[in-house]
Design goal:
55% of the residues lie in helices and 20% in strands. It is of the alpha+beta class. The longest helix has 18 residues, at 2-19. 16% of the residues are buried.
Length: 69
Amino acid sequence: MITEIGIVAGEIWHLLDETGGCTLGVLCARLGERPRDLILMSLGWLCREGHVQLVQQDRDYSVALRQRT
């Protein structure tokens, strides 16, 4: 399972790098072939590692890569 989480985390990273960020709803739609739970676990991993930032926007979240300083 950890391998699958890592693979999806990489897919999320590349998607956010290409788009500059998106909402969680759009992220799940773009990775629609993946189970939502797996997407959320992968996103949690990236958040915990400090690679992405989440900002709540009403009923959704904005997701983007953190800017390196």
